[in-house]
Amino acid sequence: MPTDAPVGCATVLDRALPPFATGTVLAGLGYSAAAGIALAGGWPLAVVLAAAPTAYIARRVQKLRTLRRVAKVIDCDGRLAKPLRVVPGYVASAYTLRAGVPPAAVRGLEFRPAGGELVAHSLTWEHARGYEVLATVPSVYAWLPAYQVLDPCCAYVARLGPELVPQRGPVRLKAESPDGDYAEAAAEVRGSSLCAQVQFAPVRARSARVDLYVRGAYALTVISTSGGTAEACVDVAGRPGIYVFREPISSARPFGLNDYGVLGLGAAGYAVRLVIDMPRRRDYYTEAEI
């Protein structure tokens, strides 16, 4: 069963269910028995029901129903089919999967209000000042503008979009190796993309590249060249849309990221690094905040 399922204009985010529970939850949400059997790996529902912990299944079904109820009332522009009691703010989600037998997940979720409780007829996100989704296997961190839904309790409704990506830069960098390899670069956030241009004159170096670092950790490579002038852009807006969830976000894939990368660039601590890649020697680089 897909755990990131579109419901109208919103996407419901929910952590993965154990294989034996999948068919039962589908049935509990009103899917056909045939779909339940097919998505439970061919196991008959009677066997699935006997194998899955009943209390756990009931809780999961109730949570999914609540998320789907909230998602169904939200139009694509944020208008609500019926009023909701909400609190505007930001939600910070952290998830790390630690290696072991069995693997252990470390989760955290915190909502920070940016106003008082209100009865909303539409979700305007007037309080939104950017966002960030950072994926660095095996961790996912998200800082998202959201509404905490109080009735029905409890869910968070967040939004991503290119209009929330702050424009940054341009910054200019120069780097030179002792052997005479020379590179210049410029980088900026333009629209919904992080763009970089590199001019590189190699002597012994293999290449020159521009990387993005987030609070000191590598996030992505914008461009790499073995010589001459090159330019490239990478999307940092992600998949625009409305997302409904209630637990820490365990995957960045619904937002358009795979194992590594960053979206939004709405927080702090971003730097671009111009790197001259040397064979069998330490690389040379310079960096600047963006």
Q: How would you describe what is shown here?
A:
It is a single chain. Helix 1 (19-28) runs antiparallel to helix 2 and helix 1 crosses helix 3. The protein has helices spanning 19-28, 33-39, 45-51, 54-72; strands at residues 4-7, 10-13, 79-98, 104-113, 118-122, 132-136, 139-151, 155-160, 168-176, 182-190, 193-201, 207-214, 217-225, 228-235, 241-245, 260-263, 270-277, 284-289. Among the domains are: 1-72, no CATH class; 166-289, Sandwich (Immunoglobulin-like), CATH 2.60.40. 15% of the residues lie in helices and 49% in strands. The chain is mainly beta. A hairpin with a 6-residue loop joins strand 17 and strand 18. It is elongated. Strands 1, 2, 3, 4, 5, 6, 7, 8, 15 and 16 form a ten-stranded mixed sheet that branches.
